[in-house]
Design goal:
By secondary structure, the chain is of the alpha+beta class. It is built from nine helices and 21 strands. Helix 3 packs antiparallel against helix 4 and helix 7 packs antiparallel against helix 9. The longest helix is centred in the last third of the chain and has 13 residues.
Length: 478
């Protein structure tokens, strides 16, 4: 395999389009661009591919949006193009084309057409439904069966999963397979991470994953560390250029009003037992629970796992931001013909019938709200085929002030890759692979101060009646 010459170099090792007419078109040399999208909150990857066409293939080869695409993309110094850990390989598990998106004429004899694609499992998911009973540990006995069953998703890809503490019995009520998996996953509690209820089921270029946010963040070392330096400052140092941040954007910082309404900081769950005429209330406190969870800065040199994205300062009423459980209120009402049945939620690891929301709802919603409302960056870096959604990365950004530290005290640190776009482009005599990364962080490098806000609410609090036909000296005659 040839040596890599520059950061972001790639090779289209194979690109074969299998048409509905039985043709296998080798379009390796006709590839103009490829984009592949990953997202930890999406069950399958998607993408698009554009070709330069001088033979009117869309008409002559009857390309209609029902084709399969065999695709292999590698970095030049990869030792084995079939190793899915190092290469993007969809030769044995082809991608499925579902739309002929655009066709643009360049001149009388040349045009560029674009195909939208996804994975075979997503196509299968839209064709069938699950209507049967499952029992056992969710990852091994339920999700794996749905994923591997030849009558269901029939996936042949790698499946990486985290074990749960649960033993469930579920009946899939005529649901799409992915919808059923998502429903099962939201009730699962982690075996390794203090019963964390943050499981996600998603796909990357490496396979399918069923794991918690805690699992993603529980890494001693990040997959890669990206630095804000001058791009390609050393043209001969490919390794350094692979870690340069070409561009970045702060997507959002903390929105405390939105976080309050979403239940991130605090919430209340009321369970109503109609049969036994009783109820029980559960309250969630973000600041109190923070230390019991795994966070992005669990192991690092740039921050503290005990630095939440909220200050512990008390407000004018003497309460912290997480001490208002009424900011988000959940109510569950169940009529269960069992004395004490609903309000006996202690999980003994043997029961297969209790899936009460008090075990997962508030913690899960709070953690997801911290992802949505936390610190989010969009990075553009030189591409490599090993990074994927769900990976932990390090980001070092410059301090924009003249402070003692050369690094930004709040934005520098470890991030989870939430979304990832692999962009492959042919042009200007160069094959260029770039990564567009949306990453999130649920801690800060330096804890927010909590000594207090000096200003307090004032005003005279007068009430004034508006008289009929009121006038003001500043009114204009019209």
């Amino acid at each position: 395999m040839a040596e890599i010459n520059y950061a972001g170099e790639f090779i289209v090792s194979e690109c074969i389009l299998c048409t509905v007419g039985g043709l296998e078109l080798d379009l390796t040399e006709q590839v103009a661009s490829i984009a592949i999208f990953e997202d930890i909150f999406q069950n399958s990857i998607t993408g698009n591919i554009s070709f330069v066409d001088t033979n009117n293939l869309t008409a002559n080869a009857s390309i209609v949006g029902q084709e399969k695409l065999k695709l292999i993309l590698v970095t030049p110094n990869a030792d084995d193009r079939t190793d899915r850990e190092m290469a993007i390989n969809f030769s044995d598990t082809p991608l499925h084309v579902y739309q002929v998106a655009t066709s643009v004429n360049i001149n009388d004899r040349t045009k560029v057409f674009t195909l939208q694609f996804t994975t075979g499992e997503m196509v299968r998911n839209n064709n069938i439904r699950v209507a049967q009973a499952y029992e056992g540990e969710p990852a091994k006995e339920i999700i794996t069966k749905v994923l591997r069953d030849p009558e269901l998703l029939n996936s042949k890809k790698e499946f990486y999963y985290e074990e749960t503490t649960n033993l469930f019995k579920f009946i899939a009520p005529n649901m799409r397979p992915f919808d059923f998996i998502n429903k099962v996953g939201q009730r699962c509690l982690s075996k390794e991470y203090n019963f964390a209820p943050t499981f996600l089921f998603y796909e990357t270029i490496k396979g399918y994953f069923f794991r918690t946010l805690d699992s993603m963040m529980d890494r001693k070392n990040p997959r890669m560390v990206f630095r804000e330096v001058t791009p390609n400052e050393d043209v001969d140092n490919v390794g350094l250029n692979l870690t340069n941040i070409l561009d970045y954007e702060l997507l959002n910082s903390t929105d405390t009003l939105l976080n309050k309404r979403s239940g991130m900081y605090s919430s209340k769950l009321t369970l109503l037992d109609v049969y036994n005429k009783s109820y029980e209330v559960f309250e969630h406190d973000y600041l109190k629970e923070f230390a019991n969870e795994i966070h992005a800065d669990e192991f690092n040199n740039y921050g503290s796992s005990q630095a939440p994205i909220a200050s512990e300062v008390a407000d004018d009423y003497g309460s912290k931001i997480s001490e208002y459980p009424d900011s988000k209120h959940y109510i569950q009402m169940i009529e269960r013909d069992t004395v004490g049945g609903l309000l006996n939620p202690a999980y003994d690891g043997k029961s297969i019938d209790y899936t009460g929301t008090d075990l997962w709802l508030q913690k899960r919603r709070s953690r997801y709200a911290a992802i949505d409302g936390g610190i989010s960056l969009r990075l553009k870096v030189n591409g490599n085929t090993t990074l994927q959604a769900g990976d932990l990365i390090g980001v070092i950004l410059k301090n924009q002030t003249d402070a003692e530290s050369s690094q930004d005290p709040y934005l520098t640190g470890r991030y989870i890759v939430r979304k990832l776009r692999h962009q492959f482009e042919k042009g200007a005599g160069q094959m260029k692979h770039t990564l567009h990364i949306e990453c999130i962080r649920d801690t800060v490098q330096k804890p927010y101060p909590s000594s207090g806000v000096v200003a307090s609410d004032g005003g005279n609090g007068k009430e004034l009646v508006i008289p009929r036909g009121s006038a003001d000296p500043g009114d204009v005659i019209f």
